[in-house]
Amino acid sequence: MTDKQTLIQEQFLKLLEQHRFREITIKMICEEAHINRSTFYTYYLDKYDLLDNMIEQHLSELNLIGSQFAEVIKTDSDTLRTSSRLYLNHLFSYIYENQSFFRTLMTVHPAQNFTQKFMGVLKENYMHIITDHHLQDPEHFVNYTLGGQFGIIYFWLQNYCVEPPEKIADIVYRNILKTNR
């Protein structure tokens, strides 16, 4: 990604924190980023393309984090607990580092489409991680776990991520262990 794209995305996100998506114009984005409209259109078709691009970037990163840990666990099943804890640390660290994006799309101006995709990626990651570990009713376990995890993520973001990501990861990890007996 170029510096200009990063700048456009950052300024768009700042606008999105203050305005509803439908209120934001290309002119507003360009003024905030101090760029010409032609520069914006070099990278994006319109504001929908910009938002879709940002969503896909973040979901791809989350998918990559999950895939990496799923592979580690598949090759060494003895590392399930350790790798699960590391996965959660990486997951919450990523959300923390990009909290402005996640807070805006999940709490400030909730985007149902984004939330569904976000939960879908997390579910897919969990299903890959727990495959071959003979858990009772794995899909129901994952759905249950994700429901609680979403609540924790939502309120953590809503409160501007006051707790460090490691603490939130530990809370989720401990709750997962309690529910899977």
Topology:
Elements: H1 3-18, H2 26-33, H3 37-43, H4 47-75, H5 80-97, H6 99-108, H7 112-130, H8 138-158, H9 165-179
Helix pairs in contact: 1-2, 1-6, 4-5, 4-7, 5-9, 7-8, 8-9
DNA-binding region: 25-44
Keywords: DNA-binding
InterPro entries: Homeodomain-like_sf, HTH-type_Tx_Regulator, HTH_TetR, TetR_C_Firmicutes
Task: Describe this protein's structure.
It is a single chain. Helix 1 packs across helix 2, helix 1 packs parallel to helix 6 and helix 7 packs across helix 8. Helix content is 79%, strand content 0%. It is built from 9 helices and no strands. It folds into 2 domains: 44 residues, Arc Repressor Mutant, subunit A, CATH 1.10.10; 128 residues, Tetracycline Repressor, domain 2, CATH 1.10.357. The chain has 181 residues and is mostly helical. The chain is elongated.
Summary, kept brief:
The protein is mainly α and 181 residues long.
**Number of continuous helical runs:** 9
Instruction: Report helical residue fraction.
Output: over 70%
How far apart lie the N and C ends? 45 Å
Instruction: Write down the overall mean pLDDT.
Output: 91
CATH classification class of the largest domain? Mainly Alpha
Largest sheet: none
Radius of gyration: 18 Å
Total strand segments: 0
Q: Write the CATH fold name of the largest domain.
A: Tetracycline Repressor, domain 2
Number of individual domains: 2
| Secondary-structure content class | mainly alpha
Label the CATH architecture of the largest domain.
Answer: Orthogonal Bundle
Poorly predicted parts: none
Silhouette? elongated
DNA-binding region: 25-44
GO molecular function: DNA binding
Organism: Macrococcus bovicus
Pfam families: TetR_C_8, TetR_N
